[in-house]
């Protein structure tokens, strides 16, 4: 593959020169209706990516296709899933897709067929979860476990937490909520204390997640939990499993009921489909629910192999995002799910996107002359409409948006009020927002004027099921991967989190001077 | 007052011309330690605003003081609290500060002394909450109410919810958690269903919050709740109070146990200190806890009257933010509380800031030639460190940051692990981040290099108590107000939310064509 910087691509120059689209005018009238019908790509699990309200047209799309080809996006993806060292900084393979299915050749690393390794962890987790659910594994008093608490931070928290929240109601309705799940992440002692205050520790299974077995926050919170268990006369070793690497101090450790393994080839933010998400989600729901989630993700991964942008929503989404960032110069992007179940999905995408592509050097360590990953934020709609949408509609800064919506609710419990259901009201609102943002509205009173030309896309699904959620997650993972290829960055390391760790340890060791000593003094550390 | 556009201020030209500060060099060595000690402003309730790690120096601060004077910030604040029509768009007074204390002259509107009106609502709420707590007001079976559910959206949700979460643990430790609070906001039917599934409706008091009594989401969710109550053989009128305006259909309505009033002079995002926050927080905690919260906010309001920027943290924070937005050209800002209790505080500030100052026309309806409010986002630390901080440290875009931290935890339940408490670890991390962002780090490997020069400030308090929370909230409200004065926008209306409402109603009435019809079809509305 040619790993070229974005500004070395001929098509990037071409893209800058293509005539811009006036979104407001192309979305007006029947032309707009046609766009909505045509500018649509089928995704996995019945999802659809609609980009009618993005500032692109056939000419721009043609250049985007050429760019995908010139940047060899599909070839690079192929290298990735066939086991090349794509994470150049840490010299590692990148294998999260392999948790959900095999896309290419067998990948052998450290003398092991990695697909087999991931399947083996899934099998072990299923066996364990089944035993917890059917009462073969019980607490000291022989009672079933009712609650699972994940202790982890970053990718060991945000993804699995967002996935749990996304499926909790669906599982409840389908009698698949086996255990309630809670999460402890922050080193703030109030976090662990509050969660422990809210559960019956004697009937709680704790899942400790740390790849290295050395994460400050996670080990601190583990000690917190163990202290509480001991105070209640309980044996921590009967209440805790570890998800860690095979070489970590947590592996093969008698302090845990069981250990499930992850490896260096799946970064934290990509680990929801590994044992990191698998253990807590299989316990909270069932192993079969987790398997469905993986199935949906795998369907997305397969579609991401398509060279044709009109058959590959993740790649098209990536290219449009790049156009908005590097040609139209928009620095921020908003993810706006019209689904309360996805309330923490934007926080997960924030990590996924900003940690992957918030980089200033390319994969060879060279400075680049163009901007990379945008700031990403979001809250569920309709809530956001009554909040920050004001700036998105009438502010000085244009923020491209990515909506998500579903035809049906998860709990199937709805009421007709004034002739329409709540779900219809919810979806009428997202439709209205897309058109309002794109087309704006004239008004004599400038304070009530909407300029329009604010681009958005939407992913629409039937219902947020485990497989649809997997497909949605993998869509964004693959989008971020393709954008990383375009920017020529390594999307799979995170050196930017290291400095803080080092300095914090120096503060705790009182090995500081200058400003850091002065701040420590302010906090009386 | 002279309501001038920012670019008409002489000091704005001056500000653009003052030499920029190289944060990295001024924060190095003992000079940095001196800055940390000196660049600090006392706030209310023992809080401190420290801006040592902002890219300002004495020369820039001098211009900022001149700008505060030239823009007549204090005079405009005085007009506001003395009852001028500051909300020019809607021709309304702006009186949220008056809920917490009187800052100037008596304010009479609609023939009523408004301070008396707000105090009367507080008195009525206290009387009601006391009766609920002591068992004078009970359910159909004579049982005490154990739970309160607020039904509201936007400002009727984000602020009160963030405040409740902020104080829940503090109240628990101090035996002041009278009732558990939950919140229903989204029109997504899964939101109301999930909350209703999680409470015992027979022992729940619902607080319906809608100023106009016509908010789509809120009335829909009210119907949802009433349906459930009826199904359980309960009388909705015995389980529900309204917080609304005196002229709304919800006032003096037999469908509610009681009604507490708000008025047009307090916008949703400023309403946490009105009956909108007062009712749910007095019920969840006690009326006295809410009074302490107001006391802290009033202390902040009083300090905001100071003309000297070194005695007025809100004004200084506003001016530095403006410098970053309009001179240094940073488009986004992050709020990063090192306190799990403040987990939803950024979402509230996101509304407060972006809805107030996300405007493109000035208070006279004229287009402006400069940018206004930034995009604001945030998550609690240390969680964010393992997520989007990567981009903040090493991304191509500089994002100014606002940290918040406390010397002590709320639950006072901490453990010494490896020689330090969790609270010390938490605070060592925030100190480390500030210095890491400002000073960066050289490295032979460019991938491990940190350029530094990433500005941040911090607000430090002793402990997050009700009064400290009030002071913190009012700080940001006043900061946003001062920035609105500087940008010459009306920070108190939100016309940008109207278009969506109108279009959504047309979708529901099937009165649409073009793109909107096509999107409705995709959703099968």
The CATH class assignment of the largest domain in chain A is Alpha Beta
- End-to-end span of chain A in angstroms? 51 Å
Tally of separate helices of chain A:
18
Low-pLDDT sequence parts of chain A: none
Give the proportion of residues in helices of chain A: 40-55%
Which structural class do you get from the secondary structure elements of chain A? alpha/beta
| Strand arrangement in the largest pleated sheet of chain A | 1-2-15-12-10-11
CATH architecture of the largest domain in chain A: 3-Layer(aba) Sandwich
Q: Report mean pLDDT of chain A, rounded to a whole number.
A: 97
Describe the protein in words.
The structure is a homodimer of 525-residue chains. By secondary structure, chain A is of the alpha/beta class. Chain A has 3 domains: 21-82 and 304-488, 3-Layer(aba) Sandwich (Rossmann fold); 96-291, Glucose-6-phosphate isomerase like protein, domain 1 (Rossmann fold), CATH 3.40.50.10490; 497-525, no CATH class. Helices cover 43% and strands 12% of the residues of chain A. Chain A has helices at residues 10-17, 23-26, 29-38, 58-70, 73-81, 114-134, 158-173, 189-197, 216-231, 275-284, 287-303, 313-327, 345-357, 389-394, 422-439, 466-487, 498-508, 514-522; strands spanning 40-42, 48-50, 108-109, 112-113, 147-151, 180-184, 204-209, 240-245, 258-262, 332-338, 375-377, 401-406, 416-417, 420-421, 456-461. Chain A has a 6-stranded mixed beta sheet, sandwiched between helices. A 5-stranded parallel beta sheet of chain A has the order 6-5-7-8-9, sandwiched between helices. A two-stranded antiparallel sheet of chain A has the order 3-4. In chain A, helix 1 packs antiparallel against helix 4 (58-70), helix 7 packs antiparallel against helix 13 (345-357) and helix 12 crosses helix 16 (466-487). The N and C termini of chain A lie far apart (51 Å). At the A-B interface, helix 3, helix 7, helix 8, helix 9 and helix 13 of A face helix 3, helix 7, helix 8, helix 9 and helix 13 of B.
């Amino acid at each position: 593959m040619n790993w070229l910087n974005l500004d070395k691509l001929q098509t990037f120059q071409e893209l800058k020169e293509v005539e811009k689209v006036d979104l407001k005018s192309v979305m007006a009238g029947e032309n707009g209706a046609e766009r909505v019908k045509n500018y649509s790509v089928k995704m996995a699990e019945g999802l659809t990516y609609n980009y009618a309200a993005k500032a692109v047209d056939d000419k721009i799309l043609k250049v985007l296709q050429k760019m995908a080809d010139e940047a060899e996006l599909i070839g690079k993806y192929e290298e990735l899933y066939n086991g090349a060292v794509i994470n150049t900084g840490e010299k590692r393979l990148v294998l999260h897709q392999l948790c959900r299915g095999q896309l290419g050749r067998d990948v052998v690393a450290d003398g092991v067929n990695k697909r087999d390794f991931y399947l083996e962890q899934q099998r072990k987790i299923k066996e364990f979860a089944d035993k917890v659910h059917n009462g073969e594994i019980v607490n000291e008093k022989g009672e079933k476990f009712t609650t699972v608490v994940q202790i982890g931070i970053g990718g060991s928290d945000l993804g699995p937490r967002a996935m749990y929240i996304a499926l909790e109601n669906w599982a409840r309705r389908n009698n698949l909520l086996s255990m309630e799940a809670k999460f402890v992440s922050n080193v703030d002692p109030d976090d662990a204390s509050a969660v422990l205050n809210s559960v019956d520790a004697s009937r709680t299974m704790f899942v400790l997640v740390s790849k290295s077995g050395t994460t400050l926050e996670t080990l601190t919170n583990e000690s917190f939990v163990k202290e509480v268990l001991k105070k209640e006369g309980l044996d921590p070793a009967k209440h805790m499993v570890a998800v860690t690497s095979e070489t970590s101090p947590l592996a093969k450790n008698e302090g845990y009921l069981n250990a499930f393994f992850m490896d260096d080839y799946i970064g934290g933010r990509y680990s929801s489909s590994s044992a990191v998400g698998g253990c807590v989600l299989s316990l909270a729901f069932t192993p079969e629910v987790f398997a469905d989630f993986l199935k949906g993700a795998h369907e997305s991964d397969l579609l991401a192999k398509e060279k044709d942008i009109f058959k590959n929503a993740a790649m098209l989404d990536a290219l449009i995002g790049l156009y908005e960032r590097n040609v139209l110069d928009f620095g921020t992007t908003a993810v706006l799910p019209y689904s309360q179940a996805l309330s923490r999905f934007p926080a997960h995408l924030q990590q996924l996107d900003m940690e992957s592509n918030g980089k200033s050097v390319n994969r060879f360590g060279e400075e680049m002359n163009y901007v990379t990953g945008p700031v990403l934020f979001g809250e569920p709609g309709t809530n956001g409409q009554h909040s920050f949408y004001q700036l998105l509609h009438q502010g000085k800064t244009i923020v491209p948006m990515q909506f998500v919506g579903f035809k049906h609710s998860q709990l199937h419990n709805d009421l007709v009020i004034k002739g329409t259901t709540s779900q219809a009201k919810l979806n009428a609102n997202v439709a209205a927002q897309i058109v309002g943002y794109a087309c704006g509205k004239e008004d004599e009173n400038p304070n009530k004027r909407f300029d329009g030309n604010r681009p958005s896309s939407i992913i629409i699904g039937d219902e947020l099921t485990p497989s649809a959620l997997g497909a949605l997650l993998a869509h964004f993972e693959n989008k971020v991967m393709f954008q990383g290829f375009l920017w020529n960055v390594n999307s799979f390391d995170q050196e930017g989190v290291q400095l803080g760790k080092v300095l914090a340890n120096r503060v705790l060791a009182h090995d500081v001077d200058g400003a850091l000593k002065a701040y420590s003094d302010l906090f009386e550390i």
